[in-house]
Amino acid sequence: MATQIRTAPESTDPLDPNPLDVSRAELWSEDRWQEPMRQLRAKAPIYRCEDSKFGPYWSVTTYKPIQHIEALPKIFSSSWEYGGITVAGDGIEHLKEGEMPMPMFIAMDPPQHTAQRRTVAPAFGPSEIERMRADTQARTAALIDTLPIGETFDWVERLSIELTTDMLAILFDFPWEERHRLTGWSDALGDIESFDTLEKRQMRLAKAFEMGAAFKQLWDAKAQNPGEHDLISIMLQSDAMKHMSENEFMGNLILLIVGGNDTTRNSMSAYAYGLHKFPEERAKLETNHDPELAVNAMHEILRWQTPLAHMRRTATEDIELFGHEIKARDKIALWYASANRDESVFPDGDRIIVDRENARRHLAFGYGIHRCVGARVAELQLTTLISEMQRRRLRVNVLAEPERVHASFVHGYRHMPVQLEKY
Fold this sequence. Notes:
The protein is an alpha+beta fold. It has helices at 25-29, 34-43, 63-70, 112-120, 126-144, 155-172, 180-189, 198-224, 231-236, 246-277, 279-287, 291-305, 336-339, 375-391; strands at residues 46-49, 57-60, 76-77, 153-154, 310-315, 319-321, 324-326, 331-335, 394-398, 403-404, 413-415, 417-422. It has a 5-stranded mixed beta sheet with strand order 1-2-8-5-3. A 3-stranded antiparallel beta sheet has the order 4-12-9. A two-stranded antiparallel ribbon has the order 6-7. α12 packs across α14.
């Protein structure tokens, strides 16, 4: 059983007035971002886009310049005060009506970033991953065993969302019966297209306060009866985070929820979609159940999908960057999705190659001091999914093009009709 999945067009629309503005949401929801990124890598890997809905910004689309920028956090800031980590932000000096600053440690510079990251990092360390492993395998296996074989269902809703939402609830010790609220908050608060109008900003703010109120109840409960492993208890016991302002508390919740949800959810969906698109690579996993191949395939799927398409930095001073004059306060979009297909690092990068020798070099989790703090949890969940599907000899057939997220930040899937078959 096979369904034809379209590939990205080989050229951009000649009538397009701004073909190299890769922040346009439709490029991502229509899966047309690959060709303009390829043009940028070939002709202008550091490119100033003068006109976009987010204002002027620099696009950096190749691997080495992104590493270079990420290694200089004092010069290329992540601070929320300058606009934070997405190309949408304009900084505290240019807040719009209905917009509220929500500091989070990924959108901070040292030393604040260092102290807060150091607080939560142990919750995602090697010993914690080992503690989670058996439960992750059990939950993944149990969910897969509920999926119908030979019947159509939505992979995103039935598998990707369920597994990642459950893990988020466990990490926060969030009330289990209310855990699906976490998914709704993640979708709403990770959407950089929700800043367009006052109405959208007000709706987003309402979601943030709804989330904040729910977690304030949890915070107060944990203050009286702290747990041992959950993130709220860990924050409460930290000098760096126990006295956070309301805005900072909500900002860090958004970071941990969106980061923990979208990265893993969309990688799990990419497992289904990507391996269907490259059946010869899927066949390698079907015939070889070596755990090391599953781990390598996990990294390759992360590289190919890149669940967060970009991170933004802001120049703190005038500086020359590989021959380009960057001015203080310029926005710089680091397109991880493009760097992960940089031909000089990943030959034939538009293809999934599950035994690719350097798949682990991907930038899907970022690079430098802001590399994703929860990367090991995402890796555990995705590798477990691959292994449990292998164990059951189950294949995912995608029946139609998925509905994708309409944004240039979260690079993901809303819905994907599939059927399972035994092989």
